[in-house]
Amino acid sequence: MISGNSNKKNNHLTKIVGYSLPFFITLLFLFFAFRNIDLKASFAYILNSSIPAIFLYILVYLASHIARALRWKYMFKSIKPDVSFFHLFGSVMVGYGVSCVIPRLGELYRGLFLGRWEGISRSTVIGTIVVERIIDVAAFLIAALIGIYIYSGDILNAIVWLKASIIIGVIIIAAATLFLILLILFKEKVSGVLVRICEKFSKRLAGRLSGIFDTLVEGLNSIRGTKNILAILVWTAIIILLYALNAYVGFFTIGLQTKGNVNFQLAFILMTISSFGVMIPTPGGTGPYHIISIFVLTHLYGFDYISSAAYSILTHFVSYIGFIISTIIVVYIVNKQRERQGLNKETFFSVFKVNPADK
User: Fold this and answer.
1) What's the CA gap between 82 and 59, in Å, rounded?
2) What angle do CA 144, 59, 77 make, to 5 degrees?
3) Could you give the angle at which helices 226-253 and 51-74 cross, rounded to 10 degrees?
4) Which has the higher per-residue pLDDT, 182 or 325?
């Protein structure tokens, strides 16, 4: 009985630590990002920011996520060709919106909402998301290598952790790709061996592992045909370029062009390096994005700390609020549509309930 109570307390403590850690990391990064910066002066820049530039920033920001939804649509060509674009775009925004509150949970919600809205197996949808994330990581690694090449100086010497991060990323992508290829070619053998090994320790864990393998295979099988693969690659390149364009437009929101030479090359490098901050589990990239953006602008390009901080605060705030508002609007609109069709509304709790189609 005492052991049972002890386990419950330990589990409760583990959950508290797990939920609190991302927010602690966020505060830590924010402290180091702004500790020696006059934030009053930075906010003065923000208060005098260009409204037209902010409006353009929002348009490019939306365009990048529309492109992401269009790319995702190609992954459903062999599953459900008539999948609703609005549902795809909406679930993308929901995913980002949830991640702004609870890191990493957004990807799960993204799959659950789309699966429920479209009546597609949740394992199939999540499988496409896993494959999409592998493509994204590979794309950003390639973008980082391009950034290293086009930078005029020795960027690897200036950013000491960049080389190690790229090497680790390449190893992870190579290992994941090799594993997925083996899983496709020899699914029964590979999954069977790993599941049997896992069963020796926990049957429940073995069952989950088997489900993960099925999910991955379903996600990979969704990408069929040379045209689909080519379209996915083209849209991936477009997404990267739109992200860089978003960073470029952001320079003009606070008049950074008056402080130094701003160009698309700078925006591309800033985007690729700041993307590494997304890998750190904080709500909406808060903290890592700020410290990396400020570092790149000040150390690599010589901008002052005050305007660099203003850039990081304003661009992150606009994106962050945009994700939150978009999530609320999308869920509301889709539920209104479902209500008119005589279907049940879906909430952030109801999507976790298992339907026959979810299996």
Assistant:
1) 26
2) 70
3) 170
4) 325
